[in-house]
Amino acid sequence: MSGLVRRYTKILRHELQCRPVWLPILTQAEVGDYGVISGGTFHRVGNLASDFADIPLDISEGPPSTLNFVSSSARIVRVAGGVEVPAFAAGAAGDGRLEINFSAADSLLLKSREVTKRRLGNINRVAQALSTTHRKDWRFLGHVIVSEVLVGHDVVFLSTRSADTKVTFAGSVQALQAVDALGARADVSVAWNREVGLDMVGKTGAIGLNLFRVRWATGGVVMRSGKPKTGKPGEPKPADKPIIEWQDPGETLEDTL
User: Fold this and answer.
1) Do the domain assignments include residue 210?
2) CB distance 99 to 93 below 8 Å
């Protein structure tokens, strides 16, 4: 996992309690996607809705949130009407600029005015169907499934490659106020004095997700608190039962390839 991905992962874990979609915004992600972990991030193989059409997916909307993160190395300068101001005033007219000076390399700016969430509500039913009706098809136990997708709206995502990088947004004061607060709602121009690592301004797309994995006990042995439980001699073996493993966003995922 690259340094930028690790930093992005840490921010999302802390701010939104989720894992990263990488590359953010540009990578498609849907609830019900399943795939593998490579390089510490999720890579889509297919989707339950299309590959297992008889499994109903109960998808609902979760409460929205916002995202506003700037590395501690950043110093922010706001200019309106040619004068430096502590904040952009609501309703102010005219043009201005927003300068963000990063004193350290590998810094990040990440904002979104709204982060919407789509969640899978019937995980137990999905797990049961995969472990019974589709037992033969669901052979690859390394596959994980997307239970939640977080979509950032009007995202501003910038990363620096070197120290002393200055990023300048220019436009109307009202547009700059939107960028400064939580994201880019209106057109602004962006310039920088040094090469940046990743820049996305005003984009909308998937930025984070959460995962789970479906496994099952085989050979008639069902695990309970780490101890095997079997039937009495002569009794039928207990039916295989699915085991749902939640992929904690605070834990590092091991590659499944």
Assistant:
1) yes
2) no
Task: Kindly tell me the sign of the dihedral angle through the C-alpha atoms of 34, 204, 183, 118.
Answer: negative
Kindly report, residue by residue over 192-244, the tens digit of the pLDDT. Answer: 999 888 888 889 999 999 999 887 655 433 333 334 444 455 444 445 566 78
Quick: pLDDT tens for 56-94. Answer: 899 999 999 999 999 999 999 999 999 999 999 888 889
**H-only helix segments in the chain:** 3-16, 48-51, 123-131, 173-181
pTM of the model: 0.83
Q: How far apart are CA 11 and CA 185, in angstroms?
A: 22
Inside any domain, residue 253: no
| Nearby residues of 154 by Cβ (< 8 Å), 6 or more positions away | 112, 113, 114, 178, 183, 184, 185, 202, 203, 204
252 domain residue, yes or no: no
